[in-house]
Amino acid sequence: MSERKTKKVLILPGDGIGPEIVGEAVKVLEVVNAKFNLGIELEEGLLGGCAIDATGVPFPDETLAQAQAADAILLGAVGGPKWDEIDRSIRPEKGLLGIRSQLGLFGNLRPAILYPQLADASSLKPEVVSGLDILIVRELTGGIYFGEPRGIDKTEDGERRGYNTYVYTESEIRRIGKLAFESARKRNGKVCSVDKANVLEATMLWREIMTDLGKDYPDVELSHMYVDNAAMQLVRAPKQFDVIVTGNMFGDILSDQASMLTGSIGMLPSASLDINAKGLYEPSHGSAPDIAGQGVANPLATILSAAMMLRYSLDMNEAAEAIEQAVGAVLDQGMRTADIATEGATQVGTREMGEAILLVLS
Ligand code: IPM
Ligand code: MG
Which residues are close to ligand 2, an ion, with C-beta < 5 A? Predict the structure, then answer.
């Protein structure tokens, strides 16, 4: 096999169940690294609550330097009750927002795919969700999450007041729109742009730009939907969607909702990409402090995030496919962590699930 140039992957285990699930994903990466001669070098870093404990801030300069030097980043999850009372400027979530923004990771891809083996795990009727395959493209470095002015202050009457700003520039809208249209071309050729253009000016501009951009993609069918209707349609008839493109806050909400259609957020990976497709990959779920340290968390979303990383940032499709097929194979074997457990299945813990994947791969 030919030698490849070394690729650096930064591993950020984070908090809560993060270290457990990332631990399994790292073993999977090590196996495919050897098997396919990928030349990946792994390095570990700190982000979130663990970084606060070690350095006093959630996103230390050293982590930024490591992230900038890496070809891709794999993250577990950040946050937990331990840091809930902390000053809001250094909360663990600030670390996540910081790395997204400082690395320019504007394009968040959140697939919601129903594995046929898990059709019973969804709270919706099987006929409503079977075959579901949606991609939510969420803008990740703008909108109300980052808009200025923001803060909590006092009015002239001395009453406290909290405020944020929902703002998008034309170039930000075009950039995320392009990613959505390009993604749709590789899928089923449909983009639904979600906004609140009946009320919010920022999203009136959003709709105008998306419509204009759509002219460059005559092969892609563009539709628009208000966010309240989109929330309703997602539970009424989710299979009408292919790619959904939306702003930061609506995307945060709709992607959690879409994930649950598939039965478990524990199955869903995500990618956050910069303009050159360098990316940060993380499971769509959070740090689940309630089950941290118990060895019961589902590592599959993180393992699938590693597969996404191989495909989108490292151009290692063969290894990515091998991992995805291994996930399908262990589901076929009836292996289930608690979050996707159904009657008759073998319930396993985090490590056993990881080991089952390794067995298929080796
Ligand atoms: C997500 C999370 C984050 C977000 C939090 C942890 C800051 O909910 O990735 O969806 O709101 O973006
Ligand atoms: Mg969220």
Answer: 252
- CATH numbers and ranges of domains, the chain: 1-108+265-362 (3.40.718.10), 123-140+170-262 (3.40.50)
Which ligand has its closest atom nearest to the C-alpha of 79? 1
Counted residue by residue, the chain has a size of: 362
pLDDT score for 119: 84
Residue 195 annotated to the active site: no
pLDDT given at position 19: 98
228: which residues sit within 8 A by CB, 6+ positions away? 196
* Pocket mutation for ligand 1, best pick of 59, 88, 97, 272 (most atoms within 8 Å of C-beta): 97
Question: Which residue's C-alpha comes closest to atom 4 of ligand 1?
Answer: 252
Predicted pLDDT at 104: 98
pLDDT of residue 3: 53
Ligand 1 pocket, CB under 6 A: 93, 96-97, 252
pLDDT digits 0-9 by tens, 302-333: 999 999 999 999 999 999 999 999 999 999 99
Active site residue 217: no
Alpha-carbon 216 to chain mean position: 27
266 near 337, Cβ under 8 Å?
A: yes
Positions in the chain short of pLDDT 70: 1-4
Q: What is the pLDDT of residue 4?
A: 58
Contacts of 231 (CB under 8 A, 6+ apart): 253, 254, 257
Pocket test for ligand 1, best of 94, 96, 110, 265 (most atoms within 8 A of CB): 96
Q: Which of 337, 360, 308 is nearest to 20 (CA)?
A: 337
Q: Which two tokens stand for residue 230?
A: 């989109």
